[in-house]
Design brief:
The chain contains 11 helices and 5 strands, in the order βαβααβααβααβαααα. It has helices spanning 17-31, 47-57, 66-90, 101-111, 116-126, 142-158, 172-188, 202-218, 227-235, 251-264, 281-299, and strands at residues 5-11, 38-41, 94-98, 134-139, 193-197. A 5-stranded parallel sheet has the order 2-3-1-4-5, with helices on both faces. The protein is elongated, with a radius of gyration of 25 Å. The structure holds adenosine-5'-diphosphate and magnesium ion.
Length: 309
């Protein structure tokens, strides 16, 4: 069975993960109508996980030892993999996950100073070393992340939503370590992690995400219906302008795809609206000769010799 596509979103609280995961899901749905991406988050996403989420994020929960916190995060993750993520991937679905093991490495490994080694070891033991195909790491400035998270948590508290502000009480030094660990992960695994830095607008971040996802989809033959759209989106560059030329990084894949698409077409040539040029001499003749005759007929209308049907 073809494996699906596993995409995770990472970043500090307030970096925009939840906002962007929804927009990405909508973009994917609009591009592959019969594909319903599976959205999940960590901690949470399962009955057991939701109870763990309440335990680790509620600010009234005090005295949780760092090791306990890490163990709970992995207990949640093991359950989510067994119950939601792996079954969906086995069915060939696209899974979008708000936080995954990189969060544990950044918060417990970096922030709580437990180090990366135990996190990676537990990931191997408890999560079967399941690696995302692509991780979108959102890193706006530390100040704007924290400011946005505080405002959001305040709003949630005003509206009597569940308290998820336990980490908010941490000092700036804790967040600095989380931030640095995230950067370390991005530098260690550049092939998996797409780093989206800086204080960008929601639309700008979305455009970068689409670019990274499109580039990844181009490499996966399981989603052929996505290819033209993905190539076009990849081409749109930072500004989100639509055109059908790929960004330089995608050019090789784009041309390979177009060649393959052309070779699949009906042998008898008919002009394509997307201006794919015929490759064989015979097809080229069938393509150009009628045009040449029509042009000649326009230039010399009186001469019946040039008349075409
Ligand atoms: N790029 C952005 N610029 C300004 N505000 C943003 C941006 N991305 C998200 N926000 C706002 O910041 C708050 C936190 O965003 P959210 O998506 O909940 O972050 P996270 O899930 O990473 O904690 C929300 O109120 C959201 O509307
Ligand atoms: Mg969120």
């Amino acid at each position: 069975m073809a494996r699906g596509l596993f995409i995770t979103l990472e970043g500090l609280d307030g970096s925009g993960k939840t906002t962007q995961i929804r927009r990405l899901a909508a973009w994917l749905k609009s591009r592959i109508p019969d594909e319903e991406p599976v959205l999940t988050r960590q901690p949470g996403g399962t009955g057991t996980g939701d109870r763990i989420r309440a335990l680790v994020l509620d600010s009234r929960q005090s005295g949780l030892a760092p090791m306990t916190e890490m163990a709970l995060m992995f207990a949640d993750r093991a359950q989510a993999i067994a119950e939601v993520i792996q079954p969906a991937l086995d069915q060939g679905k696209i899974v979008l996950c708000d936080r995954f093991t990189d969060s544990t490495e950044a918060y417990q490994g970096g922030g709580r100073q437990l180090g990366s080694a135990p996190v990676l070891e537990l990931h191997r033991l408890l999560c079967n070393d399941l690696k995302p195909d692509l991780t979108l790491l959102l890193l706006p400035s530390l100040e704007s992340s924290l400011e946005r998270a505080r405002r959001r948590n305040q709003r949630a508290s005003d509206q009597n939503e569940p308290d998820e502000s336990r980490f908010e009480a941490e000092q700036d030094a804790f967040y600095q370590r989380v931030w640095e660990k995230y950067r370390e992960i991005a530098a260690r695994e550049p092939g998996r992690v797409a780093l989206i830095e800086g204080d960008l607008s929601i639309d700008e971040v979305h455009a970068r995400i689409v670019e990274a996802v499109a580039a990844r989809l181009l490499k996966i033959s399981r989603f052929p219906s996505m290819l033209p759209a993905a190539a076009a989106e990849g081409a749109s560059g930072r500004g989100g302008r639509s055109c059908d030329r790929p960004a330089p990084a995608l050019r090789g894949e784009w041309f390979a795809h177009r060649r393959e698409e052309f070779s699949r077409r009906d042998r008898s040539f008919h002009p394509q609206p997307d201006r794919t040029w015929p490759s064989g001499l015979r097809e080229r003749r069938r393509h150009f000769y009628p045009r040449l005759l029509r042009l000649a007929a326009r230039l010399f209308p009186a001469n019946n010799l040039w008349a075409t049907p």
